[in-house]
Specification:
By secondary structure, the chain is of the alpha+beta class. Helix content is 39%, strand content 19%. A hairpin with a 2-residue loop joins strand 1 (40-44) and strand 2.
Length: 150
């Protein structure tokens, strides 16, 4: 499934095959257990998203809640999106070094970590990365990135 029209996280999980649902649910549990205070779990852009609520920060470029992390079942893999790593060279370096030190193969785009099986993902590192950035720090990071000349 590349894109879901599910309105709730439960609907999203229900439409996945059982084996994929178990993987997504396991990663979801790690994210929820590590998520700093203030972020909300929701469905956005056809995937499970962990966002800065619009009630807390409505001044976004697209009118959507700021996505901090996301989780999606794609056709051939599962993706974890970590927006606090994207665009911060030091944090990205920390993450990639720690990932490689775990002995697992890193398949990563800009903010997207792709994996096929739960054993391919260092869950402790995902927990650390999710816990890394408070809501206030993420808003500051976002505002600084929008203020940079393009």
């Amino acid at each position: 499934m590349a894109y879901s029209k599910a309105a709730t996280v439960e609907e999203y999980l229900d439409e996945l095959p059982a084996d994929r649902s178990q993987v997504v649910e396991a990663v979801r549990r790690v994210i929820l257990d590590s998520l700093p205070e203030g972020y909300e779990e929701t469905m956005q852009f056809g995937m499970i998203n962990y966002v800065v609520p619009l009630g807390r920060y409505p001044e976004t470029y697209n009118g959507q809640a700021l996505s901090y992390a996301a989780l999606a079942s794609q056709k051939n893999y599962v993706s974890v999106y970590l927006m606090n790593i994207y665009g911060d060279a030091d944090t990205e370096r920390w993450f990639t070094e720690r990932y490689k030190a775990s002995g697992k193969r890193l398949d990563m785009g800009k903010s997207c970590v792709r994996f096929r099986k739960l054993d391919d993902l260092p869950l402790d590192l995902i927990a650390e990365a999710v816990a890394l950035t408070s809501l206030e720090d993420f808003i500051e990071y976002y505002e600084a990135s929008r203020a940079k000349p393009r």
